[in-house]
Amino acid sequence: MPPLTADQVFQLNTLLWSLTDVHPEGGIHPVLRDAGYFLRAIGQRVQVPRGQSQLTALQAVTESQDASPTRPDLWLGHSDAVPQVLVELKAQSFGPNSSNQRQASKLILSAADLASSLGSPAEVPGHVCYLTPADQAAAMAETLKSLAAQILHAGGDVAPTGALGLEHTEDGVLLGSPHPDDLPYPLRHVLSTPKLVLEAPDGDNSIQPLYYIPWIPGIEDSQDPILAADGLRELTARVLTHAMAALGTARPPQLLMVSGADLLDGATLGIFSYWREADADRFAEAAAKIVERALSATVTVRRQQWRLEIELPTAELQRTAIERLEDADPSDPAKSLATVVAEPPTLF
Fold first, then answer.
1. Looking at CB atoms within 10 Å, which of 25, 120, 219, 289 has the fewest?
2. One domain, residues 57 and 162
3. Rounded Cα–Cα distance for residues 101 and 168 (Å)
C-alpha cells in the first residue's frame, strides 16, 4: 500500500487544514493561514498567454500545439501583494521526459503572468509548486527547474518553481521543502524547516482528520482502492445527511427547492464553492440525482440538472421522505457518487 503522504486526497486535505482557522488545541496547525495564505480556488483554469513568443516556446518544449488552459489543484492567494501560489499534487515525482512534463511546462509558462486568467489589467505573477511525499520532493524540484530552463531557452517566460513535501513522522505530518529558497516569501520563511500540520493522535486513532473532501473524481488509478472506497462512501453519506437536513427544515405544505451544489458545499464543509474543475457541474448534478433516486418512489421530485423540486404536501410525507434518505445505503455501488458522475450527462 502506498504511503498516506502519496494519497492525493490526503495531500489535498492536509493543505486545506493548513489554510483553515481552527482551534489551537485540535491537533491541527494552520501554518499556511498563519503566514497569510488563503484558498482562492480548486481546479481554476490558468490561461496560456497568447503572445507569439510564449506559444512558440510552449510548442518547442512540449512538441504540441495544445494551448488549452491548465487547472492546478489549488490556487493560493495571500493577504499581501505577493505571487499567487499554484499547487499541483502528485503521488510521486516525475522526470523531464515524463508524460507529465507537458502539463507542468504549460503551467510554468502560463503562471509567469496570471493577469489573463484573473481578468486583471495589471501583471499578476505566479509561483508554481508541486507537492509530493518528502522523499520525492528534491527530484521534483530538479525536474521543475529543468523544464523552466527549457522554456527560457526556447524564448518563453516562466514562473518561479518550487517543491513541497509531506512527511509522516512519529510526531505527525510535516510540510516542508527540500529547497526553501525556491519558494516565494513568506512561504520560504515559514518552511525554512519542516512544520507540523497534523499532530500524531493518541492511541490507535488515525492520523487522518475529518476530511473536507473525502473523495475526488478522476484519480481512481492513482489512489489506494480501500481509501477511495471509504472516501466515496463517506462523501455519499454526507450528501444524504445534508439532504435530510434540508427536508427537515421544510414546513409542509411546501415545494422545497434543493441544489446539488449546496448539498456538496455542505458535505465538503464549504469547500465545494471553491471548486472550479470542469466537472463541477456534473458533480453537483450527481448529488442531485442521488437524492432524486432515493425519494422518487415516495414523493414527487423534479430535477433539472443539479436543481431539485421536492413536493411535500403533508408532514407525514415529509417524515416518510426523511426515512427514505435515512435508509439509503451510501456503500451501494449502484447509488454512489462515482457511479452517477460516470453516467452520460443529460439536460434533465
1. 25
2. yes
3. 27
Q: Are 310 and 248 members of one domain? A: yes
Tens of pLDDT, residue by residue over 213-245, are 888 766 656 667 777 788 888 888 999 999 999
- Residue 3 pLDDT: 86
Indicate the Cα dihedral angle 218, 67, 154, 149, nearest 10°: -30
* Residues 187, 116 within the same domain: yes
- Classified as helix, coil or strand, 173 is strand
- Shared domain for 37 and 165, answered yes or no, is yes
Q: Kindly indicate the confidence band of residue 1, based on its pLDDT and cuts at 50, 70 and 90.
A: low
Residue 51 backbone phi and psi in degrees, to 5: -60, 145
Q: What's the pLDDT score for residue 231?
A: 84
User: pLDDT by residue (tens digit) across 26-39?
Assistant: 789 999 999 999 99
**Residues 32 and 132 occupy one common structural domain:** yes
Same domain (yes/no): 43, 176: yes
Q: Does the residue 211 lie in any domain?
A: no
Cα dihedral sign for 83, 46, 159, 21?
A: positive
Q: pLDDT tens-digit profile of 43-102?
A: 999 999 888 899 999 999 999 888 899 999 999 999 886 799 999 999 999 999 999 999
Specify whether the CB–CB gap between 143 and 95 falls below 8 A.
yes
Are residues 193 and 233 part of one domain? no
Give mean pLDDT, residues 159-165.
98
Shared domain check, 173 and 224 = no
- Burial of 42-72, coded b for 16+ CB within 10 Å and e otherwise, reads bbbbbbbbeeeebbebbeebbeeeebeebbb
Q: Show the domain range for 56.
A: 4-199
129-161 burial, b at 16+ Cβ within 10 Å, e below that, comes to bbbbbbebbebbbbbbbebbebbeebebbbbbb
Task: Say how many domains are in the chain.
Answer: 2
CA–CA separation, 62 vs 59, rounded Å? 5
Q: In what order do the strands lie in the sheet with 172-176?
A: 37-42, 74-78, 84-89, 126-133, 161-169, 172-176, 195-199
Dist CA 235 CA 228 (whole Å)? 11
